[in-house]
Amino acid sequence: MSQPPPNPYGQPGGQPQGPPPGQQPGYGYPQQQPGPAGPQYGYPGAAPPPPQMGFDPNAPHGYDPYGRPYSPKSKIVAGVLQLFIGTLGIGRFYTGHIGMAIGMLLTCGGLGIWALIDGIMLLVKDDATDSEGRILRS
After folding, report:
1. Distance CA 61, CA 70 (A)
2. How far apart are CA 8 and CA 16, in angstroms?
3. Pairing assessment for the beta strands 70-74 and 135-137 based on DSSP bridges
4. Number of neighbouring beta carbons within 10 Å of residue 114
5. Would you say the pTM of this structure is higher than 0.85?
6. Distance CA 77, CA 81 (A)
7. CB neighbours (10 Å) of residue 125?
8. If you ran DSSP here, which 8-state letter would residue 133 be given?
């Protein structure tokens, strides 16, 4: 006669005594191994959380509530410059968007319409950025 298969639970009614030989713990689900700095949280490529204390040389003007660094430029200054002398692209020169500023300079700000809309957008948007991708300060 053949022998019954081994009981993975040890004694009848008992609990498992570990995984069968050659299998990882977790009973079919792969175990996550922490990275070199411990477990990683958030989305891949997401900005790191802001530091709790001290000065961060990557963001000398601090972080916004979403963890994005602030620019030394002001969105109010950029918007007002764009509204009043936007046909010359001054607001975009201020934020460092040189290509867009030259386009506005050559087209007179889209005959003023592009400059007006862009100035309003700079003042209203919460995620207007400078040429380095940092959020303009309020």
Report:
1. 6
2. 6
3. parallel
4. 19
5. no
6. 6
7. 13
8. S
